[in-house]
Amino acid sequence: ALKMAASTVSLLPIMVLFFIAQRYFIEGITQGALKE
C-alpha cells in the first residue's frame, strides 16, 4: 500500500502538468484558428 501511495504522489504533479499543458495547447490552437 505504501508503494502505491508513493507512486501516486510522484505521478500527481506530472498529471497536473499534463492537464494544464493540454488546456493551454487547445486554447492556443483555437486562438490561432480564430486569427487566421
TrEMBL record:
Name the SUPFAM superfamilies for this protein. Answer: MetI-like
Residue ranges annotated as transmembrane are 6-26
| GO CC terms | membrane
Membrane topology, from the record: Multi-pass membrane protein
Protein's UniProt keywords contain Membrane: yes
Location relative to the cell: Membrane
Q: What is its main location?
A: membrane
**InterPro entries per the UniProt record, alphabetical:** MetI-like_sf (IPR035906)
Question: Keywords on this record?
Answer: Membrane, Transmembrane, Transmembrane helix
Q: What is this protein called?
A: Carbohydrate ABC transporter permease
Which organism encodes this protein?
A: candidate division WOR-3 bacterium
